[in-house]
Write a structure and sequence with these properties.
By secondary structure, the protein is of the alpha+beta class. It is built from 3 helices and 8 strands.
């Protein structure tokens, strides 16, 4: 007489061996869910672009990538630190999105790429930025480094930000002991 557990054991073994294969083939591009891909492009338009902090200015007709997302935030999220003046008349363009104010270059403030800015969800929050030299600085999020729009007057005729930018004031660069002439520096950041 056969035992009733034997068919159940074979069925369970069959499910356990085929399930991983079925999951892997049902969505072969699942790795893409963990990365942030470009959402489109915009055509460049040149204009009156302030190059105060070596800002890149849009070129007529050139295509620029846009992003609606940013990489996942971790305890030490990798980013590119760029330089931005949030002061009146600075290369940051208009007033900061979070508080509709300008901020002096001596203030520790940042703008985050669109995905990290989270629709204003990080406004007023403090973030810790860490440089490769071991120094860190804590700054307040006051603006979005727009990854979806650019090449217009509102954005100083600069291209859209990359999806991994922490746009720091001169005070942030100074606190980190970095040379503003470097332009773009790899850093990590986290919520404070």
């Amino acid at each position: 007489m056969a035992t009733p557990t034997r068919p159940v054991s074979y069925a369970l073994l069959l499910v356990l061996t085929t399930l991983p294969l079925a999951l892997a083939t049902s969505f072969p591009h699942r790795a893409l869910l963990q990365t942030c891909q470009p959402s489109g492009t915009i055509a460049g338009e040149s204009g009156s672009c302030s190059t105060e902090n070596d800002s890149e200015c849009c070129e007529d007709g050139r295509r620029y990538r846009t992003f609606a997302c940013s990489p996942r935030v971790t305890g030490r999220t990798r980013a590119s630190l760029t330089l931005n003046s949030f002061a009146d008349g600075g290369d940051g363009g208009g007033r900061s999105e979070c508080d509709e104010r300008f901020h002096p270059d001596s203030q520790l403030v940042v703008a985050l790429s669109t995905g990290w800015f989270s629709g204003g969800g990080r406004c007023g929050k403090r973030v810790v930025i860490r440089a490769a030299n071991g120094r860190s600085a804590t700054a307040t999020v006051v603006d979005e480094c727009d990854s979806k729009h650019g090449c217009d007057e509102e954005h100083n005729f600069e291209p859209p930000c990359a999806n991994n930018v922490v746009d720091g004031s001169p005070a942030v660069w100074k606190a980190l002991g970095l040379d503003t002439d470097d332009g773009v520096v790899p850093v990590t950041w986290s919520d404070a």
